[in-house]
């Protein structure tokens, strides 16, 4: 009878697992219709060393720190980005790549769960929990955002996959060849992550743990020592690059704006021990993951209207918030309980399971990053919450199912599984119609002014180039320091050191009060942006074609 019950339970869990995975796949594929958020273009704009030889921000006023050549080990990623961005210069391919990488990460997640689990039932339950947590709220849409968080998450998950073999076990005693290959693979994955954003530096403990666990035996010592030393050197160089890159010593307005977004800037910029102690105290008090649990909640006014505003009431949004925070907190508490049990068992058996160690390390990295964040924007959820989820599945894996905590894990998998099906349906009911409506529009979206539709760019490109020609901008590849916006950038991606309108006309302009004088000072070949983005005075002087306006020398 007991075997029969276990067989029925396995079938139920298997079907639920397949359904949850299928729901997330469909939700990610539906993300093809999600408008391109401005940051998805902005990060491509700011990491152009493969084209310009240097990375820069939206303008050139921050000083030499922000117009700098990245360390040599970051250049392969820059060349990779330059090739694909210029070969597929269309918003459609930004969204297509985001969807593809989200699906690739899902595959890596399922492979990782298979490797760290000890039984089929364990595998089914953790697959439901891990994938199910990624189905809650707007997480499926955030997973397709083509921002730095996506490659960082891919690299981190891949490193965890390399560190484990199967059945919840670490690799057996390694040959020298295997140890070198695994160690080098983890180093390359870490460098890949470091190349995209400062936040990857905070994941250094995870990569180092993977390096330690990936190989065993006497043949593993030399590879771990050599690669570990290289790792520390590259992590330090990357940290130095990003800390200085994301400061703005050349402009007091932007310096203050950057510092207000990141407490870490206050720490690195402290001028005496009193300021240092004050900044450190604020950072420690800010260490919490609670705010991240609210980020995927459908909101009345989503960040910069990345989703169309006004699609849900404040009351319904609060209900979403309560449910999501409760679910995430419950899973973290369950994970902490499992970690305690495993550590206690390991102490009595004189053998500590590596999985709770990884769970603690991953949670610590999330808290370390959160401590530096003065403002937690919604895109932070696309890295922080998958990391918390990874910590949860590492903590829950290998729990004995006969005890009380094992029963709670089973109940949690059933609850998360059901909600993982319901949540995407509810989100589709809320945001499906406006997303579908936006996908049929071309150019600039009225209801989402900082986003672009994924479709229709090809029909607009002739007007962009036509407007530019009226100002003597004939060859995009030969143009220099053009002022562009998120949409016109695609036509002028091969130009030299472009200037973004956000850094000349808008929120990141700092002390620039005369846009034309600034562009002249940079030897700019002109400006080509949406007419609606120009101040009235400049719009009256501009030449236009369709929705696009140009200005250029000598008369501007």
Summed up, what is this model?
The chain has 556 residues and is mainly alpha-helical. Helix content is 61%, strand content 3%.
Characterise this structure.
This protein has helices at residues 2-30, 38-46, 49-52, 75-87, 91-116, 120-133, 139-142, 149-163, 176-194, 204-213, 221-245, 252-261, 263-268, 273-285, 290-294, 314-349, 354-372, 381-396, 404-439, 457-469, 501-504, 515-521, 536-541, and strands at residues 36-37, 451-452, 483-484, 499-500, 527-530, 543-545, 548-551. Strand 6 and strand 7 (548-551) form a beta hairpin. The protein starts with a helix and ends in a 5-residue tail after the last strand. The chain has a five-stranded mixed sheet. A two-stranded antiparallel ribbon has the order 1-2. The chain is built from 23 helices and seven strands. It folds into two domains: 2-33 and 90-245 and 286-439, no CATH class; 451-551, no CATH class. With 556 residues, the chain is mainly α.
């Amino acid at each position: 009878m007991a075997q029969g019950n276990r067989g029925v339970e396995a079938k139920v869990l298997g079907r639920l697992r397949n359904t949850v995975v299928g729901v997330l796949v469909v939700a990610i594929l539906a993300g093809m219709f999600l408008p391109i958020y401005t940051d998805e273009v902005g990060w491509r704009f700011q990491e152009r060393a493969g084209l310009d030889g240097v990375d820069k921000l939206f303008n050139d006023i921050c000083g030499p720190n922000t117009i700098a050549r990245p360390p040599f080990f970051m250049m392969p990623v820059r060349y990779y980005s330059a090739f694909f961005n210029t070969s597929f210069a269309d918003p459609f391919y930004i969204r297509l790549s985001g969807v593809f990488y989200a699906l690739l990460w899902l595959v890596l997640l399922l492979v990782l769960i298979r490797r760290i689990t000890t039984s089929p039932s364990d595998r089914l339950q953790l697959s439901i929990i891990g994938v199910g947590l990624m189905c809650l709220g707007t997480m499926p849409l955030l997973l397709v955002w083509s921002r730095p968080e996506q490659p960082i998450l891919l690299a981190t998950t891949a490193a965890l996959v390399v560190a484990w073999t199967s059945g919840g076990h670490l690799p057996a005693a390694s040959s020298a060849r295997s140890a070198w290959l695994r160690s080098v693979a983890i180093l390359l994955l870490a460098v890949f992550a470091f190349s995209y954003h400062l936040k990857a530096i905070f994941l250094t403990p995870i990569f180092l743990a993977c390096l330690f666990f990936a190989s065993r035996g006497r043949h593993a010592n030399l590879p771990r020592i050599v690669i570990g030393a290289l790792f520390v050197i590259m992590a330090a160089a990357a940290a130095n690059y990003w800390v200085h890159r994301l400061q703005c010593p050349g402009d007091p307005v932007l310096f203050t704006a950057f510092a207000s977004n990141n407490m870490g800037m206050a720490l690195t910029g402290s001028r005496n021990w009193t300021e240092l102690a004050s900044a450190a105290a604020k950072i420690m008090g800010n260490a919490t993951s609670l705010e991240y649990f609210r980020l995927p909640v459908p909101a009345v006014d989503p960040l910069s209207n990345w989703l169309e505003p006004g699609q849900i009431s404040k009351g319904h949004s609060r209900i979403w918030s309560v449910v999501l925070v409760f679910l995430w907190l419950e899973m973290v508490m369950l994970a902490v309980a499992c970690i305690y049990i495993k550590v206690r068992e390991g102490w009595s058996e004189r053998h500590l399971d590596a999985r709770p160690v990884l769970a603690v390390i991953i949670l610590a990295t999330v808290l370390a990053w959160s401590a530096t964040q003065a403002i937690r924007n919604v895109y932070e959820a696309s890295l922080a919450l998958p990391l918390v989820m990874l910590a949860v599945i590492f903590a829950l894996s290998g729990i004995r199912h006969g005890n009380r905590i094992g029963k709670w894990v089973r109940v949690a998998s059933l609850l998360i599984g059901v909600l993982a099906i319901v949540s995407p349906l509810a989100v589709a009911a809320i945001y499906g119609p406006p997303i579908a409506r936006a996908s049929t529009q071309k150019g600039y979206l009225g209801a989402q002014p900082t986003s672009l539709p994924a479709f229709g760019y090809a029909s607009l490109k002739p007007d962009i180039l036509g407007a530019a020609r009226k100002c003597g901008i004939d060859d995009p590849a030969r143009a220099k320091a053009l002022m562009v916006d998120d949409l016109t950038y695609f036509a002028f991606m091969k130009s030299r050191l472009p200037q973004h309108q956000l850094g000349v006309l808008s929120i990141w302009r700092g002390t620039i009060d005369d846009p034309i004088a600034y562009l002249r000072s940079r030897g700019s070949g002109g400006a080509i942006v949406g007419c609606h983005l120009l101040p009235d005075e400049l719009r009256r002087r501009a030449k236009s074609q369709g929705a696009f306006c140009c200005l250029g020398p000598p008369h501007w």
